[in-house]
Amino acid sequence: MRRLLIALATTMGLFASPVAAEPREDTSDSEVCEGCKALLELAISNPRRKEDRARDVYRHPGETLAFFRVQPNMKVGEYAPGGGWYSRLLGLYLGKQGNLVGLFFNPVSGAFDEKRQAGIRADAARFPQDVSGWTGIPADRFAALTLDAVPEAEKGSYDRILIIRMMHNLFRWNIADSEIKAMREMLKPGGMIGIVDHRAKPDAAFAAADGSTGYVRQADVIKFMEVNGFDLVDQSEVNANPKDSTDWPNGVWTLPPSYALKDQDRAKYAAVGESDRMTLLFRKRT
């Protein structure tokens, strides 16, 4: 993966003058979903999200999901759900009409030791019950799988897959190629992937933008997705944060909510807020 990005950056001139690709004009999926906005607002304001709501000011979940054109009757894969911040909202939004499926790392991709492999499988097995507990919706409304064992019936069945603050890890663990390939096979023809991730400065050195600090260059993500069979549909600044200089001592994890330096200069980092983030929507190329 690292070699691929270096080659792309060299041949496409990304090191010298990174330029974001222009979104392709797209109207095939832009019709207004009647009632979607109201249902999304109901999910966002649900009392079960009271502990999560403090992060809304940084993560703009309503605007982000609307930008990704997520509708409540869709089949949506959430890649690497982690602590469940987005899972709780997606479960509330999709749980009655749609399908939320947790998509977990391929445990045997080479990035994980045996203990972590077992943990990934356990997380996937527990995901439906976790979302049920968070939302009050029966667990059989939710599902999960690991990307080493995608059933044939799941391929070509997803309307959307969301990759939230995870591309940088795929790059630094050298598993982006295989994971994106698996997800591409799961999408319907014309299905879309929505990506949110920590954004490096356009002219950042590769060593500071290869995912190891948590940041990646937007132009590199766009080019990577294009090489892997996707077209850029649109890009948004809804999750931008101009206060983020991106050069923190412990990378992006210096900022909230991680606060890697704990109480050291905590007020300073709290004033910055969460990271500057790209928000990109890609369509599977047929």
Automatic annotation (TrEMBL):
<protein>
    <submittedName>
        <fullName>Methyltransferase</fullName>
    </submittedName>
</protein>
<keyword id="KW-0732">Signal</keyword>
<dbReference type="GO" id="GO:0008168">
    <property type="term" value="F:methyltransferase activity"/>
</dbReference>
<keyword id="KW-0808">Transferase</keyword>
<dbReference type="InterPro" id="IPR029063">
    <property type="entry name" value="SAM-dependent_MTases_sf"/>
</dbReference>
<dbReference type="GO" id="GO:0032259">
    <property type="term" value="P:methylation"/>
</dbReference>
<dbReference type="InterPro" id="IPR016980">
    <property type="entry name" value="S-AdoMet-dep_MeTrfase_Alr7345"/>
</dbReference>
<keyword id="KW-0489">Methyltransferase</keyword>
<feature type="signal peptide">
    <location>
        <begin position="1"/>
        <end position="21"/>
    </location>
</feature>
